[in-house]
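Posting here for the record, re: zinc ion.
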Amino acid sequence: MAFRVLTGLFGHESNAFSKLPTRLENFSNYLLAFGDDVPGAIKGATIEPTGVEEAAEYMDWDLVRTVVAWATPSGPVARDAWDVGTAAILDAAANQGPFDGVLLNLHGAMASVDHADAEGVLLAALRDVIGPDVPVAITLDLHANVTDQMTRHADIICAYQTYPHIDQVQTSWRAAKVLDRAMRGEITPFAVTARRPTIEGLDDGRTTTDNPMTKLLARAAKLEADDPDVLLVSLHAGFTPADLAEAGPSVSVTGNGNDPRFQAIAEDYMDYVWETRHFDSNTYLSVDETMAQVHALLAAGKGQGPIIVADFSDNPGSGAYGDSTFLLQGLLRADLDNACFGTICDAEAAQTLMQAGEGAEITLMLGGKTDPTFGPPIEVTGTVVRVTDGTYVAQGPRWKGVTHHLGPTAIFKAHGVEIVVASNRLQLTEVEAFTHAGIDPRQRDVVAVKSMQHFRAAFQPMAREVLICDAGALSGKDISKLPFTQLRRPIYPLDLD
Ligand SMILES: [Zn+2]
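Prediction output follows.
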């Protein structure tokens, strides 16, 4: 008899300090499908449910699909989206069982407007329905904030091992293999989690350099290979702008059976996370420092490929607004002649530019409309080069095969900078955000993107140089002004060194 497995993806990274709630339409703008529509909706996409489908076919599971739902990070999930996502999973759990196992693709840093530990609440509710004995496996982003409630109700915890995240499919496979063994009765998985008083660590999980994250991943791989009872070691760098007591880095160990030595392993790994908490592989430049470096590089002559400037602080991928104008202002003042900038999220400006039409010269107020603290609207005069529907299929390693929707989009050229003015907020991870509108970033001297790290997957290979700019928007490095109310204190770096 094939094992009957309940599955679903309900993922969001919720920035507690964003004023923009994440509604159902934000999910439908990105990825939202139910039940038997799921395979069609994810066809060709290198995301977690694809790994579940592959593993289920290989292991001959009878899969009960509930939902796939993903939205760009922003504020906590609104009730309409929360109710739809959780009902899809819980109703199927109640009505389509019994189940031999559960494999859920979660993010691990979701908050709803009612629940700071949204995934913990979801897993507790699921446990109420399916009972204590059905093995539950969860996959997570490595920026998960793993709570005790999540750990209590999940038997198998398995996070990505790459940042940029390019192993979503493999992560589902890793969890599925352990779940399959559990359903066969070969093992009894039990998960434990350890933390330290820090909200930062593991070099934010970056795996593009030699750092505490890559060192600990290597150690974990060796331990999993050497010790048959250590089923999975899951390393989490945490997600900082979450107003949650247990936010921050953690290590979860899934062992065979409830043995205190697995907690000891997790604690030992967290000792290392604590010891290395100050490590940061990035050099963060202000806008002025960034532009000085850009000028120095350009003065040194043409290089191989563009200078990539990444605005770390206005990354929609961590819930920032994507309309900060600080870096754009710096570029416009810099007297460049061959640059592009992606994106400014400003639906009103995109509409005005589209109405003006291709070839029109126009002056308008651009960006800065969500919260002028992060760069007020700026007056820009330029030419509408192109208008598009903002739709493209990602080809980079981060989101390959996923259709992205920037919404109505205009390319507005001013002072030598082609600005992608979009209607929807999206982290700039894909070359296609430019090429779909006729801009080839490989041919530009300077390419500015709003992204912290994921841009590296597609843009690092073409880059002459990568500069990380902390322009001072919502997701900047200085977290001292974020109004945490639930976070455990004292904590590094706010109270402890
Ligand atoms: Zn992440």
